[in-house]
Design goal:
By secondary structure, the chain is an all-alpha fold. It has 11 helices and no strands. 63% of the residues lie in helices and 0% in strands.
C-alpha cells in the first residue's frame, strides 16, 4: 500500500493524481516552466471541465476546443495552447500504444527499469530528464519498482530531495526547491 500523494496542496487535485495514473502522467508532462503544484493541478482542471479524464476522450477532442478548454481561466498551464497539443499527443500515444491504459507502460511484459524508461522517453514531451523523474516518482511513491528502476532513474532514484518524486508534503516541497535553487546557483557560478 502506498501513501496518498501530496503534490498540489489541493485535496481534490491530489486525490485525482493518486487514483488516476493518466492524471499523474499528465501532471508530469505539464511540469515545466510553472510551479510543480500548478503543473500537477492541471489534470484536475481538465477533468473538471471534461467531466472526467479519459485518454480516449482527450485524444479525440477537437484540438481548438481542447486548447480553449486548457486556456479557460484558471488556465491549465502558462502556455495553454502548446501544452494542449502536447497533452493530446500523449493521450493519443497512450490510446494507440497501450489501448488507453497508461499503467501498461510499466506492466506490459513485466519490463525492467530501463525498458520502462525507454517507453516513457518515447512519449511526446518526455525527454530523458522528465522520463527519469517520472520513473523515480513511480518507484518512490507508487510502488512501481521494476528491476533496475533506481539505476535507470539516475540521480532521481537516490534518496535525496531532487524532484517531484520526493515531494510528500509542504516541508519536502521546500527542500526540493532549496536543492533546485542551489543547483542553479552552482551552474551560474561554474560559467
Amino acid at each position: 500500500m502506498t501513501a496518498p500523494l501530496w503534490m498540489t496542496g489541493d485535496e481534490a487535485a491530489d486525490r485525482l493524481l493518486d487514483e488516476d495514473p493518466f492524471a499523474l502522467l499528465l501532471g508530469m508532462l505539464l511540469d515545466q516552466q510553472v510551479a510543480m503544484e500548478t503543473a500537477f493541478a492541471g489534470p484536475a482542471k481538465i477533468a473538471e471541465r471534461m467531466g472526467g479524464l479519459d485518454p480516449h476522450r482527450v485524444a479525440g477532442a477537437d484540438p481548438e476546443e481542447f486548447a480553449a478548454l486548457c486556456a479557460t481561466p484558471p488556465a491549465v498551464h502558462r502556455y495553454p495552447g502548446s501544452m494542449a497539443s502536447r497533452i493530446q499527443a500523449v493521450a493519443r500515444a497512450v490510446v494507440d500504444e497501450y489501448d488507453g491504459d497508461v499503467t501498461r507502460l510499466w506492466t506490459d511484459g513485466d519490463p525492467d527499469g530501463p525498458t520502462v524508461l525507454k517507453r516513457l522517453k518515447a512519449l511526446p514531451g518526455f525527454g530523458d530528464q522528465k522520463a527519469r523523474i517520472f520513473l523515480a516518482l513511480l518507484g518512490k511513491q507508487r510502488g512501481v519498482t521494476p528491476a533496475g528502476w533506481r539505476e535507470a532513474a539516475g540521480a532521481y532514484g537516490d534518496e535525496e530531495f531532487r524532484s517531484i518524486a520526493d515531494v510528500r508534503d509542504p516541508v519536502s516541497l521546500a527542500r526540493v526547491r532549496e536543492t533546485k535553487k542551489a543547483a542553479k546557483a552552482a551552474a551560474r557560478a561554474a560559467r
